[in-house]
Amino acid sequence: MRLDVVTIFPEYLEPLNVSLVGKARARGQLDVRVHDLRNWTHDKHNTVDDTPYGGGPGMVMKPEPWGEALDEIIASGQGDERPVLVVPTPSGRPFTQELAVELSGKPWLVFTPARYEGIDRRVIEEYGERFDVREVSIGDYVLAGGEAPVLVMVEAIARLLPGVLGNAESHRDDSFAPGAMADLLEGPVYTKPPEWRGRGIPEVLLSGHHGRIARWRRDEAFKRTDRNRPDLIERADPASFDKKDREM
Ligand code: 6GU
């Protein structure tokens, strides 16, 4: 998979050199290219923003540098390959595990994290006519720019690529993964030592009884979901819960 990121803070994307994403790049599973938007400015001050039409606070990112950057990056593709453009904005559609899975199946993503009050609307209109453009928000809070959301989205997408996670089973029971525990958050986990500061391990996990362990894990997942995310239980398919769940 190829990922391009266009930003005025390329150094903000340095974490993409580290850990899971960094290793995927080193192994050649991910081709990540970070670009400085100011490379596509032509004035002495490398201006990327201007005051908003209609007045109001803050600044708006000018369309011309984005247009030149995106045209050049898109033209650098192999043959007729077309990227999906991912535009981080607090006004976008929610970034969910479902969207991460969808985007992880695309060969090429271009991210356009903005600062200030966002990008001149005509850029989104222009590319939206010719490309698949997704305006995406990572949650109901406002950040100063789209760079941190890009780090979030790239990590969520990269770990889904074949061969990137060490153990192919590792995302089988992720919170939000489809499957038996769909609609429930993951429950608590334990490792050695068997006693720490006077606290032991739930007996059932030491029992070797796989059926009872699975049932206990499901009960714990249900309790935690009910406590932390009751909305997930409200919205779940009732058929995904058994009699024992309903008694919790
Ligand atoms: Cl994608 N950008 C900004 N600036 N703030 C956000 C966001 C994105 N998602 C949630 N808050």
Short descriptors:
single chain, 248 residues, alpha/beta, Alpha/beta knot, Trp Operon Repressor, Chain A, 2 domains, 5-stranded parallel sheet, two-stranded antiparallel sheet, 8 helices, 7 strands, 15% strand, binds 6-chloroguanine, tRNA_m1G_MeTrfase_C_sf, S-adenosyl-L-methionine
Quick recap of the structure?
This protein is an alpha/beta fold and 248 residues long. The protein contains eight helices and seven strands.
Provide a descriptive summary of the structure in words.
The chain has 248 residues and is α/β, with parallel strands linked by helices. The protein has two domains: 157 residues, SPOUT methyltransferase, trefoil knot domain (Alpha/beta knot), CATH 3.40.1280; 77 residues, Orthogonal Bundle (Trp Operon Repressor, Chain A). Helices cover 31% and strands 15% of the residues. It is built from eight helices and seven strands; from the N terminus they run βαβββαβαβαβαααα. The protein has a five-stranded parallel beta sheet. A two-stranded antiparallel ribbon has the order 3-4. Helix 3 links the parallel strand 5 and strand 6. The mean pLDDT is 95. The structure holds 6-chloroguanine. One of its GO terms (molecular function) is tRNA (guanine(37)-N1)-methyltransferase activity. Belongs to the RNA methyltransferase TrmD family. InterPro entries: Alpha/beta_knot_MTases, tRNA_m1G_MeTrfase_C_sf, tRNA_m1G_MeTrfase_TrmD, tRNA_m1G_MTases_N, tRNA_MeTrfase_TRMD/TRM10. Its main location: cytoplasm. Pfam families: tRNA_m1G_MT.
